[in-house]
From TrEMBL, chains A, B:
UniProt cross-references to InterPro entries, sorted A to Z: Acid_phosphat_B-like, Acid_phosphatase_pln, APS1/VSP, HAD-like_sf, HAD_sf
Entry superkingdom: Eukaryota
Signal peptide feature range: 1-19
Gene Ontology MF annotations: acid phosphatase activity
Pfam families: Acid_phosphat_B
The protein's name in its UniProt record: Acid phosphatase 1-like
Organism in which the protein naturally occurs: Dioscorea cayennensis subsp. rotundata
Gene3D superfamilies (alphabetical): HAD superfamily/HAD-like (3.40.50.1000)
Record key words, sorted: Glycoprotein, Signal
Protein family per UniProt: Belongs to the APS1/VSP family.
Length: 252, 252
């Protein structure tokens, strides 16, 4: 952890040195000077509730806040509480034993954590670099998000069929399977990745189509977990959808 | 403010004396003893993202957290940042001048703040008392939520028609109008309250019907602001919906 923290602070120093001019958001709103933490906490709430709409990079003045959030207790606690509510709901569902009771999981920032990647790429302060991220995917060394791994096992124990639905592409299937196994996941029912015909679709369109496909095959989608609203919304939806925190990036 | 703070702490003392046994939520999730603030902050995020689902009263151990939140900087900041994103979006909409461009506002905890009422009734730790709340409504002295009053005026300046859509009942119309004027609101296009035929409907059903009625009359609902997800979801929805914070109560 000492090494990781050192790395984080080195990255912070580098990022600060090359920081963009601070863009003062909402200049006509009351704000006290220097109250970045208060603002950034409100910005994060707006991101998590989807009030912020589409965004590309985190506000420049929120880099320190984001670094502390994802590496500190709060991200872990927020994730654990969402998992707790997910399990509470999951337990209320009568599982039939016909193998058709499904829970859908997104992968990145839901089952797997790419914090080590984002630590080396500005924590959401830099534009998304697809080449660099694809190299990271091939390494297949993303750790599990601990709260999600625990929930995954609990749902499996309750008899849910686990369906993984990711925006990653089909050519990344082997690396993705390797990484899931490395992180401790196994025994999923199905793993959907984007096929060639899905490239260019929004996440909402692509993921809704896959949920519709599942329902057409008789599956009952009781729950869905994702770090993006685009993992969850669109028709059909799961009976209950659970939004995991992600202050690093936005996917439409 | 000194008097208000004294009042708050007296209420806190009374509430503590009669506090329910602390219900440890999610006992199988990692939590450190005494780390109520961390948990309560995660609980609040789950409420705001609708992960918590239906709930009746705030967790007993989060009373202090909620009191500090709604009376401190964070509630004001969170509300102001949502209003900022709302205005950002509102400015992107071409307003036609035909009087059909609408923004819908909920009233309680959106335009008006009932914090003075909840300060005297346990800040969400007590079951909702309809009789007591109706007496408070008749007083017509709820202040404006400052960020919403500013947004309301800005939207009016941009040419939006302002439609108010509340779960309050028709018999409360006069008191509601008095209160809105007292708080500084004026010149709304329409004020919908529940008629007898709406009593018993969920907020989602009732509010969706009213949005459908507006659309049938040719109005374009660009934006909608509410402190409950049930203010915002259901078909038809506004082009963009904005969820204001409310850690005090939940309406289905």
């Amino acid at each position: 952890m000492g090494t990781l923290n050192s790395l984080i602070f080195i990255i912070l120093l580098i990022s600060s040195a090359s920081a963009q001019t601070l863009i003062q958001m909402f200049p006509n709103r009351p704000q006290r000077n220097g109250d970045d933490e208060l603002f950034c906490d409100s910005w994060r709430l707006s991101v998590e509730t989807n009030n912020a709409g589409m965004w590309n990079t985190i506000p420049a003045k929120c880099l320190k806040f984001v670094v502390e959030y994802v590496n500190g207790d709060r991200y872990a606690s927020d994730s654990a509480v969402v998992a707790g509510y997910s399990l509470d709901f999951a337990r209320t569902v009568p599982i039939t034993g016909d193998g058709k009771d499904v829970w859908v999981f997104d992968i990145d920032e839901t089952l797997l954590s790419n914090i080590p990647y984002y630590a080396a790429h500005g924590y959401g302060s830099e534009a998304f670099n697809e080449t660099a991220f694809d190299e990271w995917v091939v390494e297949a060394r993303a750790p599990a998000l601990p709260a999600s791994l625990q929930l995954y096992e609990e749902l499996r124990g309750l008899g849910y069929q686990l369906v993984l639905l990711t925006g990653r592409a089909e050519f990344q299937r082997n690396a993705t399977v390797d990484n899931l196994l490395f992180a401790g996941y196994h025994s999923w029912k199905r793993l959907y990745l984007r096929e060639d015909s899905d490239i260019g679709k929004t996440a909402v369109a692509y993921k809704s189509e896959k949920r519709a496909e599942l329902e057409a095959q008789g599956y009952r989608i009781h729950g869905s977990s994702g770090d993006q609203w685009s993992d969850l919304i669109g028709s059909p939806m799961a009976s209950r959808s659970f939004k995991l925190p992600n202050p690093l990036y936005f996917i439409a």
